[in-house]
Amino acid sequence: DAKTTQPPSMDCAEGRAANLPCNHSTISGNEYVYWYRQIHSQGPQYIIHGLKNNETNEMASLIITEDRKSSTLILPHATLRDTAVYYCIVLIQGAQKLVFGQGTRLTINP
Amino acid sequence: DAGITQSPRHKVTETGTPVTLRCHQTENHRYMYWYRQDPGHGLRLIHYSYGVKDTDKGEVSDGYSVSRSKTEDFLLTLESATSSQTSVYFCAITSGTGHNSPLHFGNGTRLTVT
């Protein structure tokens, strides 16, 4: 599975959009980009995933560049409860062995 | 929590003793996983199961064994616990291997080996 690179930490003001970047320059054509987050002491929570088109759900939006070498997770109106570690993962369809990197620790400030 | 229950939630045990952690799901999902999480290492896959009696090793399987005798239960056993196995253990489940089948995680078991 392709390796991902994320900044170790980010800050965002409450109510603003939080944009979390992820680089996956070695991604293959059949690999999906998944995002999870982990709030302190809880299990990771699925957020969103995509292949090459931008995706949106009730939690977030996922923007994938045209060359698919990077993506951005957008939390449109961040709240204090969005403070968590966010993981970007690439995964071949049909494979379910998620490999987690170190993630980005996002802090939402009041 | 997608119908996942991990037990116990906390356990303290002594070096050399056997320990079994249980993951129970009510979703009838085929795939189940055990991860451990440690500072500086993130989440690492220990073992996974793709059906009753079908299991395979992950990246950190040494010192661990698993069993899946029923769809709903996936057991992780430390035959002889060591201090290096002090960690938080997470179980995860998914219905299939399609791209619309993300993993759902339990809330973890915190194990301390003294």
Brief descriptors of the model:
heterodimer; A: 110 residues; mainly beta; B: 114 residues; seven-stranded mixed sheet; 11 strands
Principal-axis shape of chain A: globular
Q: Report the strand count of chain A.
A: 9
Helix percent of chain B reads under 10%
Largest sheet of chain B: 7 strands, mixed
Which consecutive residue ranges of chain B, at least 5 long each, have pLDDT under 50? none
Structural write-up:
The complex is a heterodimer of chains A (110) and B (114). Chain A is mainly beta and 110 residues long. Chain A is built from no helices and nine strands. In chain A, the strands form two sheets. In chain A, strands 1-9-8-3-4 form a five-stranded mixed β-sheet, with no helix packed on it. With 114 residues, chain B is mostly beta strands. In chain B, strands 2, 4, 5, 6, 9, 10 and 11 form a seven-stranded mixed β-sheet that branches. In chain B, strands 1-3-8-7 form a four-stranded antiparallel β-sheet, with no helix packed on it. At the A-B interface, strand 3 and strand 4 of A face strand 4, strand 5, strand 9 and strand 10 of B.
Task: Describe the SSE topology.
The complex is a heterodimer of chains A (110) and B (114).
Chain A: E1 9-13, E2 18-23, E3 31-38, E4 45-50, E5 55-56, E6 61-64, E7 70-75, E8 84-92, E9 104-109
Parallel strand pairs in A: 1-9
Antiparallel strand pairs in A: 2-7, 3-4, 3-8, 5-6, 6-7, 8-9
Chain B: E1 4-7, E2 10-13, E3 19-25, E4 31-38, E5 42-51, E6 54-57, E7 64-70, E8 73-78, E9 87-94, E10 104-105, E11 109-113
Parallel strand pairs in B: 2-11
Antiparallel strand pairs in B: 1-3, 3-8, 4-5, 4-9, 5-6, 7-8, 9-10, 9-11
